[in-house]
Amino acid sequence: MTANSGLVAIGGDLSPESLINAYSQGIFPWFNSDAEPILWWSPDPRAVVPLVDAEGRPWQGSATGGLHVSRRLRRRLSAGHFDVTTDQAFEAVIRGCAVPRKEGDGTWITAAMQHAYAKLHEIGLAHSVEVWQQGELVGGVYGVSLGRMFFAESMFSARTDASKAGLARLAEHLVALKFELIDCQIMNRHLESLGARFMPRDEFLARVRHNNSRATDRGPWTLATS
After folding, report:
1. Cβ atoms within 10 Å, residue 56
2. 0.90 cut: is pTM over it?
3. How far apart, in whole angstroms, are the C-alpha atoms of residue 56 and residue 36?
4. Element (H, E) at 83
5. How open is the CA angle 150-99-24, to the nearest 5 degrees?
């Protein structure tokens, strides 16, 4: 990111209180090293996946809301190609997400970040979706749940379609619980292909303020269906 992409603060800490306060204002941490100050961001526009419409019905009538799920992936899920669970291996998922995508790349999911989100998981606010094949963890997604919004942080895939399978099951779960949207933070081609769309920051922050009045369900998740 650049300074005009939504940098709103420098410094602070990654305590659960600080993270909850940040997400409640539409802000998230993103920085390169634990030796550097924490950077806090609120980009404009925001990348989101809508889940339900104004009437609380699944977006465009889909069980996965605005998330695009290909026919191929639907077939693989129906055939049991993947086993998908929630909150069974949070720390393993975040470690998988922290692995650099390419040799020589760094990671923004530092040791301090991993520890901070593990603390949020312990108090029932951070959740993981795990994707397995023959007992091996091959993909996953993690993020923070507040009110009826899910703030996605990262995902990883060690097999073709594994992270997409996790996202599809996550979206089904959230739609069934009438969550309003998934915050994807920053748009990229992959997210756009999955149905993420831009939302102006002012609109996103208004949605966050409204969401702050909603009750948050804490504790481990069990996958729900619509």
Report:
1. 10
2. yes
3. 42
4. strand 83-86
5. 25
Q: What is the pLDDT of residue 4?
A: 47
d(CA 150, CA 144) in angstroms, rounded, equals 6
**One pLDDT digit (tens) per residue for the chain, 226 residues:** 443 479 999 999 999 999 999 999 999 999 989 999 999 999 999 999 999 988 889 998 899 999 999 999 999 999 999 999 999 999 999 999 999 876 556 678 999 999 999 999 999 999 999 999 999 999 999 999 999 999 999 999 999 999 999 999 999 999 999 999 999 999 999 999 999 999 999 999 999 999 999 999 999 999 876 4
User: Residue 187 burial by CB count (10 A; 0-12/13-18/19+): exposed, middle or buried?
Assistant: middle
Handedness of CA 209, 215, 218, 222 (dihedral sign): negative
Comparing C-alpha atoms, which of 7, 200, 166, 27 is closest to residue 87? 166
Coil, strand or helix: which one is 4? helix
The first and second tokens of residue 220, run together, are 């481990």
* 8 Å CB contact between 144 and 23: yes
Compute CA distances 100 → 16, 108, 186, whole Å: 25, 9, 18
Round to whole Å and give the CA distance between 96 and 140. 8
Spatial contact of 68 and 163, defined as CB atoms under 8 Å apart: no
User: Distance between CA 21 and CA 72 in Å, rounded?
Assistant: 40
CA 226, CA 45: separation in Å to the nearest integer?
30
Backbone angles phi, psi at 145, to 5 degrees: -110, 120
Angle subtended by helix axes 16-23 and 111-122, to nearest 10: 80
